[in-house]
Fold these 4 entries.
Entry 1:
Amino acid sequence: MSSYRLPNGGLVDRSAPLSFTFDGARYSGFEGDTLASALMANGVRLVGRSFKYHRPRGMLSAGPEEPSALVTLRTGARREPNTKATMVPLYDGLVATSQNRWPSLEFDIMAANQLAGPLLSAGFYYKTFMGPTAKAWMAYEHFIRQAAGLGRATHEPDPDRYDKANVHCDVLVVGGGAAGLAAASAAASSGARVIVADENARLGGSLLTEAGRVNGQSAVAFAEQHIAALATEPGVTLMPRTAVYGYYDSNVLGAVEQIADHLPVPPTGLPRQRHWTITAGRVVLATGAIERPIVFPGNDTPGVMLAESARTYVIRYGVRPAARAVLFATHDAAYRVARDAARAGVEMAAIVDPRPAPGEGAKALADEAGIPVMAGHGVMKALGGKALNTVVVAPMDLGTGAVTGPESAIAADGLFVSGGWTPTVHLASQAGGAPVWDGKIAAFVPGAPRQAWTDAGACAGTFALSACLADGARLGALSADTLGFAAKPPPDYAVEDDLTSQSIAFVRKVKPTGRAPKAFVDLQHDVTASDVALAHREGFQSVEHLKRYTTLGMAADQGKTSNVTGLALMAEARRQDISHVGTTRFRPPYTPVSLGALAGFETGHHFYPKRRSPMDLWHRENGGDMTPVGLWDRPRAYLQDGETMTEAYVREAAAVRAGVGLVDVSTLGKIDVQGPDAATFLDRVYANGFAKLPVGKARYGLMLREDGLLFDDGTTWRLSETQYLMTTTTANAGPVMAHLEYHLDIVWPEMRVALASVTDQWAAVAIAGPQAREVLWMAIDDIDFSNDALPFMGVRQGTLDGETVWVARLSFSGELAYEVYIGAHFGLHMWQRLLEAGQPFGIIPYGLEALGTLRIEKGHVAGGELDGRTTADDLGLGRMASTKKAYIGGHMTGRPGLADDRRFQLVGVKALDDQPVRAGSHIVVEAELTEPAESLGHVTAYTYSPAVNAHIGLALVENGRARIGERHFATYPLKGHHVPVELVDPCFFDPDGERMHG
Amino acid sequence: MADPRSPLADIPLAALQTNWSEAIGVTVNVTLKRCMFQVQAWPDTIETVAQSLSSALGIDVAFNQRTVLANDDVEVVTVGPGRVLVSGGDNAAFAAVGEAVAPDIGAVTDLSHARIRLDLTGSDSAFILSKGLNLDFDHERMPDGTVHASGIHGVPIIMVRRTRELFTLYVPRTFAAAIAEWIGEAAQDVGVAFRN
């Protein structure tokens, strides 16, 4: 074991050694270590390189605020960059690598950036890469992007599962430290359901390093006892390794539980992480506080670390963070660090305190430990490059940070820094007013809540253990009581506090004389004190501008250690109090959240729910080339051996015209409209009339939006005096249902009409072609299919093998055609039965492409034409709109914009040189297209028509009907297509409708 | 005669099953109901329709609670204002209700093919459902008989809690396979079995 691991102590399990590697070197640690503590125990101080200057960096902290010790975990598909070594639980076989260095961490060529420091100040991109041409940035950007960033994410798909779940509770306690545990106990005593969520692997927070005693026992023992008691409470859920990252409206919070991040590979079936959406009656924010660094030159040198973190390494992990160290602190409580470090064998060379004198307790503690106190002094520089070796101190003015006396050097490999505490106000800020500056503790505390939360303990600016416990217990009980529970009086905690700080002196920045290394405000983004000053000089003085100009407070740590000092420096530059400068608004996430956790398991095959027609499997098993249509998959065509898609659909379309074909139309929206007022209702929602539609007949209907534009079309069948079956397009089924429900519920609530989606109830097919009637005669009973008995648009009920079917004689193809509906459980049976009955007639199944071909040949409109911009008149359907009744959108159809003779109107297009015409092509007059030309319109649909023996399409063309006969070009510049076309009537085939009426 | 075909016959249910820990946290039973229909009363006929349904079905139907009412053969689930879902029985029940609820007091829509019933049972059934439903599954707050109309993965469902560990989902037929696949994925960590 290394000399940095203490012979005893700490909360690690020394009976469980673990092996891991860092940059390929093998090390060992113990169960209970973090990667950071294990590296420190092995004497590893240099763990990374900084973002911009590639400066050597070590561990600044021991917790989630860590800005510097970012490493890449694992390899291959599980490689994860930018993880905080301080938050990575050590496991056997862990593989970690340093990042942002080449060729090695020790020797990083990009460290030469430090020589160009003056050029790399805030905003240097924008100042430097401006010319010589406007497009020059495009060239620079490639190299800048290459150089930027820290770790590299894997390009392989993530092999792990991520889960998600919702949970409700009465009281959510965020943070499992002293205040949080006390709050949870108090709330749980009422019978309320309580969740305690903490981002750390082990609950207890500062109790795990607290030297004070509670109820006569150590703080650690108290914490363990408390946690064990909570674990047995039936209404309490303890969630360690769960970071609450976002606070949203209605007291909903987002959290991520790390289920298997502490294992090399998640066990089979277990997710790596689970996202929790927590809905809480009340929330107690016991999120603690983060120790604040002090800005001085060289404050990023490996070996410089936050004081309480140094103590955490000693007490919690049994690791000596340095051999000889200096404490630089601005308040009394930090003196505990010197005491405990000294007890662990760290030679404490001095306590440097810029205050004129420490408090009596602190002075006594230093005297007892034999540590010299340099009151009225500050650390002017930390020197050493890759490892701290010298701390330069000097007398300084507490108010200005200026040197007031000669410097002296202290040899040390550790410098423990404490500039006070910053309450962790992130969640409170997300769900509350702006944080409020508290001068006594020199920190921002949570503003007024906008939601049902209270802040407890250090989050509220209360730092003594006794106060944290009392605060937590009081607010936990209050939270439960507010919800109608009755909490028991909280127990009296007999607390012997350790040394506490009555007040905290605030040092913005130390100002040494002469040359000095850079003084960093934000270690993660390499933002220096000079950058803040530069931002001020250049006018970026608002805290929001400061953040964006310098990137202060951005990235993975979200400014946890940098915000307050950065704001203080800006306040000083503006000659204002920091309370006037304010803070930026904290937004989710509080800590990085993986995209996998946000997505959960609804990825890949589960990305969206797939709707399946009753015949879906048949299509797949019989050559159907499936394509997504909304949530459905539909067959484009049924490919036979060696066929191309074009060959297949041309074959299918031709077969329908010549004989008979069957297509699955189960995806059409179907709405049951019932009630005494159903006819009136339909008269209002359709542009054409339905009230006089006889029972047993169907009608094609046009539905308009309120603005007069076309919304949807379809047929509606009158099944009885009071019942209609409305069909909609596949794409608009949901919106049409919502449209109808809105008008029924809100606009005409007096109407006696019931709506029910029956899309799932009915399997539906269209059977089309000259032989369609013969096939139905063979398969369906109880219907007379003769032309007189079942004329065009007639609707009849019959049976197919004993099951009820509805048959409507409708035609989208222009052929003699019928739609047949049967209960969906029998859909596949009907499909197979009709194919069987059609065998003597050469029946074939056909897909969407042939369906499209048939409808284009007839000039029937579909989604390409019903694009939300067209009117009934644009599509040649204007005469269908009633002039005798009011209907939705009717009053708007005559407005100038919709009656303009320059509107795009539906026409047919026919290729003149036997070339395909791409859908989306623009119609232009230019024969040669070298520059963008004026578009007369665009092609909405295209096909090769076996019936016309030509490439044809439909188009929306300006004043199109008047242009029929003109010859222009359909151009598609992206593909280099430029096809001569003639504008023709949109109906290419059987214009008199003899086939469908026959 | 034609045989009804379950939409779950189109997917390999066995492949969705997991029991890596040799435990089954949730078992899914799939049922094609013989008869299911929705009854909608007009705002001023709710009482009349309730009385008509009560006499036709032999159940004391009330529209003012989001709960399930049942006898041995038929159950009535209140799914909205003046709206119930009646399931079970046979076509005679549908005919009887159709007779009892004339158009001037309400509407009856056949949904026998439109919904699939999935019964989830097991110690983890509530946990699995909580992955798709943001509902408070605490047994005191969601007692037996509670009905919720909500959505899982964007699919509208009606959920009935029958016991602490038994839940019924009425799922649109065309989404039934997708929901079964969703449950199979959601239950990976607890183990799942399907009974068709």
Entry 2:
Amino acid sequence: MARSDTASLECEQLDPGGLRLAFRGTLNAGSAERLWPEVMRKVAESRPSAVEIDAQGVESLDAAGMALLFELKAAQEDRHGDFRIRGLRDDLGELMKLFDPGPPSAPARGPGLLIRSVNGLGQAAHEFVTGFHSQVGFLGEIFVRLLGVLVRPSRLRWADTFLIAEKAGANAVGIVALMGFLIGLILAFQSAIGMRKFGAEIYVADLVVLVLFRELGPLITAFILTSRSGSAFAAELGTMKVNEEVDALVTMGVDPVQFLALPRLVAAICVMPLLTLFNMLFGLIGCGLVMRSFGFPVATYIDQIQEAASLGDLCGGLVKTFVFGALIAGIGCLRGLQTGKSPSAVGDSATRAVVSGIVAIVVTDGVFAVMYYYLGI
Amino acid sequence: MGSDALPIIQVSDVTVGYDHQIVLKDVTFEVRAGEVFCILGGSGCGKSTLLKHMIGLHRPMTGSILVDGTDIVSAEGEERRALLGRIGVAYQNGALFGSMTLIENICLVLEEFTSLPRQAMQTIARMKMKVVGLQDAGDRMPSELSGGMRKRAAIARALALDPKILFLDEPSAGLDPITAAQLDDLIVELSQTLKITFVIVTHELASIFAVADRVIMLDKERRTIIARGAPEELRDRSDDPWVRQFFHRQAALA
């Protein structure tokens, strides 16, 4: 748009209640910026019954200039006043006709705040229930397929499964180990502050090993896997959905759950316990470092953890990880396959995969805690 | 279109490619002010690549591209911005921002280049929607549009700043013949009433004959322009077997 501002405006009150606006020069974006507020103020002040535009001196007109004239016209029509343009060059008049947008459509009046909030609440509740329903349904469906694979292992795409296991598992060892090490270190330090008052620093080892084996090891690893791989599963499948690759599978007679979700599920279930073991091991190393700095020999530390934790503690923790792995992959794939069509849909799916994954993990962990309590593990 | 019209785009000895692979070598041509200029060629011959170089998205390996008096290859800062304000581009799939309504899509460009009041931008956006025949779709999201409407909306957005030159990448690809013909009519109308210069990448014969004043044809094997002139001229008089095949094979289909 041209920016040179060479237009001028003259206003004249006409009897009775009319307003004459004479434009001269080049009516372009530059001059419209300046004239727009001035013209609108004049019209609003005098509330004319008729507006007459004298366009004899208008040399050229761009979109912004035309917008100014259309706006005046719309304002007059709103007020049921007259509007006329005089002396506009024919070619410019043709242009005006081509671009005339007509009256603006009235914005649709939405419902009030109360109705909207009740609506929103109902919708959220509905989404929660249907979301939970579809999650449970999908996990059940995928579990049935999993049993099918146990009967006929050749039905699983093993090459894909190993590739996914490498990406989700082997490539995550570094971060999982680092997190374990740091958590063990921090946990030992923090608990030592309290224990020292009673001269019971040696029991820091008991605390850390129990917490790591039973709760934090599986949980931290599950959180890492959710954010690393659960989101990736959702994004991969979501992109395939947007690109109609999932539809292509369906029309080729290939079951997308079998083809896409199952390898991911098997891979996640396989790598999750292994990653958790790494996490626990490095957590213990972190804790051992702190114990060493308190002056305990390594042998004493190892003795202490052997006495504090039983194989049952370790197994109890590891059993959970199978379930966590299934949840992470299942929810990630479900969210991916639920992806919509809009450009932000893939991002939304990845976000929802992480959020529902974490919630599901924590809730399941709670269920396990209650179960273990009654089983006496 | 008179042959004495001034060139508005001059492409001189341009070599384009990716990495070390040359797609087009020593291409020279000019686009005259006010004409509808089409770049033709088979798939993968570098039509869209050439267009991307002409709008300054990529730098050519050698050569210069003058667009409306400015070298788009070397222009930077304010000069480049001013040039971008004088050209409009409609991408193949529309490239409309999915999170905004069509009106907001157009207003975004206006906000960047003008400081008009909000109301003025809205009115301008509605005017542009009217020109492309989408006056009732302003509040819709791009995902709610059909393919033809999306292309029109992309043209409306490209028109936002009253450009002198409009670049269209395969405007009628993937459209049914009727919608494609309507789009061709729109291009002709805009070219005649607004005196906009069009540079269109296409391989749809029907469109070429409906809109083009002059065309150039690129070839994948020879990596250069193999024919240039009015489309009728190429169809009737070209000796090049590839050009003949392009026009007659498609004509036989149509």
Entry 3:
Amino acid sequence: MIRRPEDRVPAISPRLALRIAVLGFVALGLFALIFFRLWYLQVLTGDQYLAEARDNRVRELRIQAPRGEIVDRNDSTLVTNRQAIVVSLDPSRLPEEVRLMAADWGQRAGQRETRPEGERGEPEPIPEIPAAELRERYERIGRVLELDAQEVHARVIRSLAVVPYANVNLAIDAPLPVLNYLSERNTEFPGVEISERYLREYPKEELAAQLFGVVGEISPDELEEERYRGVEQGTIIGKEGLERSYDRYLRGQDGIRRVVVDAMGRRNPDDGLPDTEPIAGRQLRLSIDLELQEAGQQALEEIAGGRPGGFVAMDPESGEVLAMGSAPSFDPNGLSGRPITQERYDELYGEEADSPRFNRVISGSYPIGSTFKPIAAIGMLESDAVQPGLTINDPGCIFISTQEFCNAGDVPLGTVDFGRSLEASSDIFYYRLGERAHSIDSDPIQTYARRLGFDEPTGIDLPGEFGGTVPDEEWSEEIKQAERDCREEEDRENCGIALLDSQWTVGQTVQLAIGQGGFQASPLQLAVAYAAIENGGDVVTPHVGLEITDGSGVPVQSIETDPARELDISKQTLDIVRNGLRRAANGPEGTSTAIFDDWPGRYTVHGKTGTAQRPPSGDQSWYAAYVPDRERPLVVAATVENGGFGAETAAPIVCQIMAGWYDVDSECTAAASEIVDD
Amino acid sequence: MEPPRPTTALRSALRLPFDPLLALAVVGLSVCSLLAVRASSPGDLQNFYVSRQAAYFLLGLILAVLISRLDYSRLRELKYGVYTLMMGGIVAVLAFGSISRGSRLSIEFPFFSFQASELGKLLLVVALAGFLVDRARRLDERDTTARTLLLALVPAALVMIAPDLGSATVYVVVALALLFVAGTSWKHFAALAGLAGVAVVLVLVAAPAVGVNVLEDYQTERFTAFLNPSQDPADAGYQQAQSQVAIGSGQKVGRGELATQTRLDFLPEARTDFIYAVVGERWGFVGAGLVLSLYALLIWRGLRILTMAKNLFGALIAGGIVAMVLFQVFINVGMNVGIMPITGIALPLMTYGGSSVISNLLAVGLLQSIYAQGRATAARKGRVPAA
């Protein structure tokens, strides 16, 4: 039997034995403690730590999906993409202080925007760079990108104020040596990222810019919206125009690239993790005809000569918009992902800029002057308020109630019937109609104006449409109430919305009959009303989107449009109004005859001039017309702010658009002596 | 001609026994250390670190074997020399040392950087053991306890300047353990505990209140970080959180080659302070438990050898070494698993680094010497047959 040596050690004192035992128990206790902790970490909660370890190393990078292109009805490219290299700054690598600073600045800048125009004062100054170390970082990246530190800081603040956690774009399309320099020394530039992105490209530059709208990163508010459900933060979405209305199709689906990074955030090559491929957006084909659009835009530019205005050309049968332009315009290429400088901001929003991003065709609200006369005529005739054969003596000026109303230039026209009232644009005739309408309880003019699509948005597939105003007694009370509310809430003497002592009087209905007196409409609403005259009483829903196609142009989905609303306008009424409009553009007394005098007989223009008074601005020129061509019918409406008489600017624009559509060789001008007030 | 024969002394020394279980624990830990150092190094540097660590082990083992063949008792007369050597090393490091990670811990030699505070721990054990043996009959005197502690507090204060809070606490713990094993009265320990409580209050509460910061901010932060881990990578709490993630993610059998916490540098100081987390992540509960068991074996053998020592000097040295190793293992592993603050204490025989490895192997050599001498003496007294 082997005896273990341990059993034969020399005897030790009891005191030492006790102490060793204590030491042994302490050791046992400590080992037990660690053992159980290990058990807890590795066996009981190991799954959770494993997941954490995985999250630690995997970074998900968004692979941007290319946005769908937008093409015209003949597949000409209107909006496309280009790949660009973007130098951006990861905000999570900036001090928390900067984020707070940006939020604060954004709040103050936002408050400034709510002050009335002209009283806003200086733009909110960008705060100082908070730390010397940060300034040094800004200077380092600024030296490479040729920006000073304060400008880098300003871009960071502006960007973080708008989208707090999105990357701050510092430069787009930086030259290759700069990119190489940055990527080779990425440890010297903490948080600076270089990525390839798709930027929206607008090859036609200012052409139809408001129609297309712009794109941008989804905002925190938009993320909450139902229509963007499932859209990730940082996704590029349409912000305005068609980009917004057809965003669902154009957007596509961003992919995800999973990369393994180390603790310093450096990319580790051995990832081997599956990527989710991006799905490109669908192509959108528009009803727009590029050639017509160009013709219209050129006409607007040449004839309006820088004055604000707009035009729309439409198929009166289907409501397909063939061209739509608003001046002044802007080059949306400048807004596609580039850092926004204060100058660019002012170019677009400054007080001198005449609001280039504003689409006057759908969002403008104007009195439309004499172009309203056919609508007034339809209302009176269809309500049987007057006989079709009605004639009125036009002495140039008349008194209604105690107020004197005159033709433009006080010209007496003598005996006027419906046809002549439109041809020569007799105001007296319509004043008398208005006087008569005022006494009829059913409000015939307002009723038919509404049926023809005024007073509510047309429903075009573009955001930001204005509904307009058809004034009546109820409206008069509403605006007075608004005035009272405004005075009370803002504690002001006068808000300028309405006069509180004014009553709904005959004078206002008389003014309405010639498209004044509180009446407001957009050029698009006018085009829809004239389309109804052309097509026999169908109020169409205008639309720009035609179909969704795949990348190669094969249709995958047609765009549903609300059906036209059919008005039962009698043949007799239509004939009277159509005849009047034809005479207005062709008859000896026609207000726009001189413009179209060189047109061939094959295309009969039916058109009405309008000159709307818009104090304190000057006269606004209007023209609305259609050609009832069996194969290619067309309705066009145009307006020029401060454009003078209808025949001066708006009618020549419409003439040129129509000439472009029908390939007619026309001067589209009239001698100054031939232009009459209407 | 007879061939030259070894002297009697050498022959008897070679015949001395050694503790195979202790040797097993040490060799096992050496192998684990080499594997862990390999696992925690990037591919192109693996050979560099592993070969250096292997060289340290080899050198340390040779020295340990030599020491184990000598009679440690001779060191008793050299205690003043040992103490002076220790102090000299510490002062030299303070005077000529190079700064790494904010601390002046070592002197750079061409192939070796000498960390005096590591070897100092063992030297202090020996010196204090010698001192206490001299005063073995005066252990009840407060003077003995006070002087012993003073002898430890002087080097502790010096390494605090470095600053090396970890080593300083080890010095104090070693002194207390020696007093404990020597048989100092419980009353003295109770008084010391009271004094320590007052000191803690002074250092942490009273002194900062009057504007004197005894501890550097980062030291206070390290002490409290394990109570509230954070996400800031520059922060001590983050390091500890990453260490826990590493160990936890190892689960039962470890992640092997997929040990990303280590490989992708999420685990800070993976070769040194957090080498235990490397083991935990890569080899899981099995690996971490094995390493822990090897330490338990080492401690058990140490305590066993304590009981076998032929004299008080040996028992004290063994007790000091056991306390030194136990304390460092507990603090370091505790820090890795998130139950102890970050103090920069190395894991004996695992952490990469020559000073630590060699000092700890020397300590093991001393334990073996105590074992061998104890066995030999017992044999001479007839209690145990001489093998």
Entry 4:
Amino acid sequence: MGLKKYLTFTRAGIVESLQFRSSIFVTILGNFIYLIITYYLWKAIYASVDSKVINGMSFADTMIYLVLASALFYFMEVYLVWDMGRSIQTGKIVLDLLKPIPYQSFMFWYSSGSCLMSFIITFLPTAVLVYIVTKGAIHLGINLLFFMAGVVLALLINYFINLIVGTICIHTESIWGVNIMKEVIVLLFSGATIPIAFFPEKLRTLVFYMPFQAIYNTPLRLLITPNMSRQERLQLLLIQLFWVVVLYGISKLFWNISIKKITVNGG
Amino acid sequence: MKRIRFYLRIYRKILAQDLKSKMSYRADFIISTIGMIFTNVAGFISFWVVFQNFPSVMGWNYHEMLFLYGFSLIALTPVQCFFDNNWSLRHYVYSGDFIKYCFRPINLFFYYMSEVFDIKGLGQLLFGSVTIIYAWNKLGLEVSVIVLVELFIAIITASLFMIALMNAAAATCFWIVNSGYVMVTAFKFKDYSRYPVTIFSPVFRFVFTFVIPIAFISYYPSLLFLRSNTVPLLTWLSPAIGVASFYLSYKFWMKGAASYSGTGS
């Protein structure tokens, strides 16, 4: 079976992420503090206006959205740009390029391991907690299935964006700057810090034409919007699929051009 | 006095070396600067988006919040510019290179921090200054020599809190492995310093005032200008608390450095 050789990389990723247990603890603690601050901030914001629902979102909706968005963020964070940038700078990338498997798929399967781990460690507990605290504000039904499909597509979109940004490092030799630009843009325009429903009309239209909102906003909408028609759900997934294909194409093309330029000093 | 002049001269010399070495990676420098501007612009956009929907938060209007925001950006500039080498501390400690700092006849902490000056922070300073001047104008606040001196002192003392926090977070690497996550978590707090501490419940108000003192980065000092009729005692005490925090973090950092035994290589 062809998949088996790839799952070996997944396993290696899992084992590696288990090495850093204390970091998982600090990350969870940091996330917890972030959630507390977000909670009070939005509570204060909602307390300052008369209407309970703003832009179609109540305080509870906003909170659920933001909590799950931050959990999704921790789950999808792959540090791919850092890994690629560093292995380009140190020259380790040569060893990865020599492997009898395309570099892109090697990195994908390798990072899938740590993604799987953080899904179990951060996202699942958070989602269960939200479900219990809100006493079932998340509807359990067919939407879960669409959500899972949305998450997988979002993972791919996120991966290809990271791959494109990582490839930029071949040209620039700057990791920090390139990575921070990517992070800032993705976080803002994906709706991870502020729900996209709050954006002013023009900005929302602009955001709609970008791939970033398909990473966090789409899966979350598939999960928490009640009574979404099947047609609308499929439409959201199709848009995601469109971005997967486009970004895959761009990343492949960009990589093939860039790899010819790579220079590694000795080693 | 003579000692201070001596240290200033050394700082200038080390700084010049650092800038020269940075200039040899020009592309990296330019991209990092653009990245910093991106961070500030994006932070401002999210701030602006929230206030498009909500005219005020807990009695603080848009321009007052903008004041807090600009103030926090300026107060966070020194930690970015002068203490950025904290981020590399754990790498030096693990690789054993830290030992080179231990053999210099000047203050260890000073020498270590002087080695890096992060120019990117100046973009943040500019961004914060424009924001605070705009808010100052819109709020129609008084402009006089005394107020400007007060503002200057307030900003300097406010900056000490974040410096202290980052020193302490960085120094944890002398004792624990993987302290990078401690630093990332501590650094995130800066994003919350720009909100009035009154939005939190009493427990967290206490925590953010006395345990993780981020309320001093923008909220308490800003009261001096925005709520000049009811300035709490903590605002007046904040310079003293700031200096004390910095001193404690410095002692903690030095204690870690003193316990450093090298890697033997």
